[in-house]
Structure formats: structure tokens, C-alpha cells
Design brief:
Elements lengths: L7 H8 L3 E5 L8 H11 L3 E5 L5 E2 L2 E2 L13 E4 L6 H11 L3 E4 L6 H9 L3 E3 L4 H9 L1
Parallel strand pairs: 1-2, 1-5, 5-6, 6-7
Antiparallel strand pairs: 3-4
Length: about 140
């Protein structure tokens, strides 16, 4: 699977945004959908968990959907399978984030193009933790 064509400079610009909603954030510490957002928190990011099956993760209130989050979100970081991205992207577009970040292994070109046409930067098949460590650590 390919990745997006953003330059390192663009990724650094994106990583300078600090308000991140994480769709599919996990309660289980061994899963990337848990330890990646925890890493982001430990590195100064404000993280909002989105998981309809949990009330709290890392002592933070969980939202059942991105639409339920009060206030703006800079980045929506997605940990859901590629076959679920279409409906997720539609919800994300309504929230008007600056960036939709699809973690490693996640890609849906048609949905990504819809987001781009709405003025949203789309990053796909990359890990926020790995990119932060590679470019900013």
C-alpha cells in the first residue's frame, strides 16, 4: 500500500497542530490505538477519545462519534479498518478538521478525495507516533 505524497515539511506542519480527536481509541494498552494517543498526550497534544464502546479511556471522557465533540478539532486520527472509512470520512468532513490522519494500513482513495475537495488535508498509511519520532524527536 502506498502512502500520501506529503513532504516531511508538510508533516511537520501538521504535527504542529495540537488538538487531536482519535476515532477508534482503544482501552487496551497493548494496541496501537491506545499507545499512540498516549504517546501524543505525553508529547503535549490534547487528545479526545472517540469510541462508542467506552465511557472513559486514560481517564478522559469518550465520545460516541466525532460529531458529539464540543468545539473544533485540528486533526482527526483514525484507527478503524479501511472498509469503514467512507462513513467515517463523511462524519469528519462535517466536523471540519484541518487534517484527517489515517493510521498505517488504512486507505480509501474515494473517501480521501471527498475530504480533500472539502479543503481537508488527508494523510494515509502513516503512524502519528512514528512520524513524530522520525521528524521531531
Amino acid at each position: 500500500m502506498d502512502t500520501d505524497s506529503h513532504s516531511d515539511e508538510k508533516i511537520i506542519d501538521v504535527l504542529s497542530l495540537k488538538n487531536v480527536a482519535v476515532i477508534g481509541m482503544s482501552k487496551h494498552p497493548s494496541k496501537a490505538a491506545h499507545y499512540v494517543p498516549k504517546y501524543l498526550i505525553d508529547n503535549g497534544y490534547g487528545v479526545t477519545p472517540v469510541n462508542p464502546t467506552a465511557d472513559k479511556i486514560l481517564n478522559m471522557c469518550c465520545y460516541e462519534s466525532v460529531a458529539k465533540i464540543d468545539g473544533p478539532v485540528d486533526i482527526i486520527d483514525v484507527f478503524r479498518p479501511s472498509d469503514q472509512i467512507s462513513s467515517i470520512i463523511h462524519d469528519c468532513i462535517k466536523k471540519k478538521p484541518k487534517v484527517i490522519w489515517l493510521q498505517e494500513g488504512i486507505h480509501d482513495s474515494d473517501s480521501e478525495e471527498l475530504a480533500r475537495k472539502s479543503g481537508i488535508v488527508v494523510i494515509f498509511n502513516r503512524c502519528m507516533l512514528a512520524e513524530h519520532q522520525r521528524l521531531l524527536s
